């Protein structure tokens, strides 16, 4: 399956999302650096001292440690330990920032632009070790001017939350199963007797759809209150739940982001089944999720099959049953060129 995020006509936001979605996740550092970079870019800052970067970088990690105390696969990580001590009041901010500069940046600067073992041709910063600063690139500043920029911080935080859940479950030698709450429009995990909300489904799915409607490719937004707010749609209509007892229609595999017009506009989808070529698009989207590794990968495999052939068979059988019951199919009016 072709990977649109890195191989096919990539744009700046494609490159950025490739880092967030497909880079290695052994600790939270990539996400904290990404959030810091987005903040400085939005302020049009270009030369960031290690001291200023360390303060924001550490703050993001400290905030997430208050939500989840597992922030990587190595529980003895010295910088994460320093962040925990700061949260507990054992060290002050100056000590925390100094620790960030000496140990917190040790690997993240070099690893950030590495996706699947290779460096991306686009760099969002350069490291000036002599002046102890990060120099933001023109590409990052240009990214900050794009319409998609406003969604990127939420996407990073959502991805971070999903990976946190994976780290927690891996510690307990269990495979994460992510569920969807249609009322809250959020993903959650069931941990024994406790239900834990993880993240907004909108922000979790948006990066894989590159900020566009699944059906017509019109631009969508994930910010509350936006007139272009994305809606979470069940590709196979939820009303068929009773006819498809073996298919979890609230599963990640069946959820896509749609614009309001496609979902419930004048010629919208409503409770119709999409045309067959859109089923192929759904399979391709799910392959993106699976290729992004843990944790959505495990959820999708559990819901649809261990290998690609099984997943195709699952989609085909589910789709055929849906069409047999609903009869009518639906196709969107294309707004923009296909992006995935």
Describe this entry's structure for a reader.
- This protein is α+β, with helices and mostly antiparallel strands and 340 residues long.
- The protein folds into 2 domains: 12-143, no CATH class; 178-330, no CATH class.
- Helix content is 44%, strand content 13%.
- It has 13 helices and 12 strands.
- It has helices at 12-22, 29-42, 50-65, 78-87, 93-104, 108-111, 138-143, 149-171, 201-206, 260-264, 276-291, 296-304, 308-326, and strands at residues 47-49, 114-115, 118-119, 125-128, 133-136, 178-181, 186-191, 194-200, 231-234, 255-258, 273-274, 329-330.
- A 3-stranded antiparallel beta sheet has the order 1-5-4.
- A hairpin with a 4-residue loop joins strand 6 and strand 7 (186-191).
- Helix 11 crosses helix 12 (296-304).
- The longest helix is centred in the middle third of the chain and has 23 residues, at 149-171.
- The radius of gyration is 21 Å and the shape is globular.
- Residues 1-8 have low confidence and may be disordered.
User: Would you tell me the overall average pLDDT?
Assistant: 88
Helix content: 40-55%
User: Treating each run of at least 4 consecutive H or I residues as one helix, how many helices?
Assistant: 13
Specify the overall morphology. Answer: globular
* Rg result: 21 Å
Spatial separation of the terminal alpha carbons: 11 Å
The parts where pLDDT drops under 50 for at least 5 residues are: 1-8
